[in-house]
Design brief:
The chain has helices at 20-32, 64-71, 96-102, 105-108, 116-127, 139-145, 168-174, 207-224; strands at residues 4-8, 36-41, 50-51, 56-57, 76-78, 89-92, 132-135, 150-151, 178-179, 188-190, 195-198. By secondary structure, the chain is α/β, with parallel strands linked by helices. α1 crosses α8 (207-224).
């Protein structure tokens, strides 16, 4: 019987929702791993809406759950309905929507607040000693909710210009967590907390390398489940 995995989305589109390639990569690797997957997103208004063609704000409002349904092909539930007891693991793809909609990191950095249902979901899986997978910017959720945990967002220095958001590692350290430097095709496993992280698009890398890195994260999550 395959592992039961919940995947939590933050909208649809890198600049104001879930990063589509990351979400798709996670779902492909979960499918390959024989997992039974259900998708969730909070039923809240997006912090903002970005015109992805122009890269500028759009004067409209969108709902995170409704937008996430695009990625889920319509098969998605309100995050408030997620019950950790029904799953073996949970995974959070990245994208600016994580930092805008699932928490306020995009505005407040390490002083951010985490959406109540996201916070409850993370704590429920952690308390049940069930693995949590996070990629790209989403490891900051774990850093905020679980002081002392270990995560990676890639490198803590902008090596060869490939890690433009490396300063995020310093903010993670300021929250009392340990940042572990990893390459894009690797993931880090915090065995004590059962938290698995990989940098994905926090690194400027070819798409297949990001896809492979997410694959290592998914596999480690399934191994721990």
């Amino acid at each position: 019987m395959g592992k039961r995995v919940a995947v939590v989305l933050a909208g649809c589109g890198v600049f104001d929702g879930s990063e589509i390639h990351e979400a798709s990569a996670a779902l492909v690797h979960l499918s390959r791993g024989g997992a039974e997957v259900k998708l969730f997103a909070p039923n809240i208004e997006q912090r903002d809406v970005v015109d992805h063609l122009k890269g500028s704000p759009a004067e409209e409002k969108r709902n995170v759950l409704v937008e996430s349904a695009r990625l889920a092909r319509g098969n998605i539930q309100d995050l408030a309905e997620l019950k950790a007891g029904e799953f073996d693991a949970v995974i959070f793809p990245g994208g600016f929507g994580v930092a805008k909609n699932l928490c306020s990191w995009a505005v407040d950095g390490k002083n951010c607040t985490v959406n109540e249902h996201v916070n409850a979901t993370l704590k429920a899986f952690h308390s049940a000693k069930k693995p949590i997978g996070l990629c790209c910017i989403s490891p900051v959720l774990a850093a905020k909710v679980f002081p002392g945990c270990e995560v990676t967002i890639g490198q803590d220095k902008n090596v060869d210009g490939r890690f433009p958001d490396a300063e995020t590692a310093s903010a993670i350290a300021e929250l009392g967590c340990k940042h572990i430097c990893k390459n894009v095709n690797e993931s880090h496993v915090d065995k004590a907390n059962k938290i698995v992280t990989t940098c994905a698009f926090m690194c400027k890398a070819p798409l297949h390398e990001i896809f492979d890195g997410i694959g290592t994260m998914v596999q480690e999550v399934l191994n721990l489940a």
